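A.,

Following up on our hallway conversation. Structure tokens first:
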């Protein structure tokens, strides 16, 4: 394996504000003119591809989670204001149609909040956003260690360093796949229909849009049975007559 010459141009992105580890892959291979095919193929088609994929997925789930949360916050903040308008009098008289419209708006907002919270729980948007971001940063850090011959790569030759890189990168991605599989199993076990219905009912009851469901009465206590009388003991016991 030929010795790699890392120029100042190829390592300068690490010192700049807009540091882009993906560009480091291109710079590394550009400077490594005699790189064997397997190294180029792994770094571009495996490591680079996974870095980009995790970056894009993390950004996607972040946008999705933030969008839902913003809607929930806006609706949650508007509900107390709308509830305060119920019973508002106009020229000394209340308007039944106005109150009905406000109650419909409050009920709709509660349904939307419950549905969006259910979607966030179902798709695990926040968990996946954080997990994908962590994995992406771990891959970038691993390649940075490989590039600078630091961490696990101190004192290793090019072939040994590449073997170490492959092992570490595959372990990082295997751990992430295991976490994703666990999240998928949790999603399959979740009974979202019941959770959304319970959340919506609780929300509407809290804001007095609907009457709370009556709580079931506890079962009656079993009757107390008097214990049978016991025979007196000692001196109080009745002596048997002699025959």
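Then the amino acids I'd put at each of the 243 positions:
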């Amino acid at each position: 394996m030929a010795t790699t010459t890392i120029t100042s141009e190829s390592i300068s992105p690490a010192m700049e504000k807009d540091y882009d580890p993906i560009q480091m892959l291109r710079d590394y291979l550009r400077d490594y003119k005699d790189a064997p095919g397997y190294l180029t193929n792994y770094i571009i088609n495996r490591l680079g591809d996974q870095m980009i994929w995790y970056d894009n997925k993390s950004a996607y789930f972040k946008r999705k989670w933030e969008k839902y949360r913003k809607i929930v916050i806006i609706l949650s903040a508007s509900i107390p204001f709308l509830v305060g308008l119920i019973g508002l009098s106009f020229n000394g008289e209340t308007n039944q149609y106005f109150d009905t419209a406000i109650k419909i708006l409050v009920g709709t907002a509660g349904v939307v909040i419950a549905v969006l919270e259910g979607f966030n729980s179902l798709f695990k948007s926040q968990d996946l956003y954080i997990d994908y971001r962590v994995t992406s940063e771990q891959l970038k850090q691993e390649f940075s260690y490989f590039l600078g011959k630091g961490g696990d790569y101190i004192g290793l030759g090019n072939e040994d360093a590449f073997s170490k890189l492959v092992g570490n990168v595959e372990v990082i991605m295997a751990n992430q796949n295991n976490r994703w599989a666990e999240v998928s199993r949790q999603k399959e076990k979740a009974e979202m229909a019941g959770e959304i219905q319970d959340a919506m009912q609780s929300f509407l009851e809290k804001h007095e849009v609907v009457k709370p469901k009556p709580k079931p009465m506890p079962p009656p206590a079993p009757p107390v049975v008097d214990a049978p009388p016991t025979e007196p003991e000692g001196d109080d016991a009745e002596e048997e007559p002699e025959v």
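The chain has one domain: 9-79+108-207. Curious whether your intuition agrees with the design.

B.
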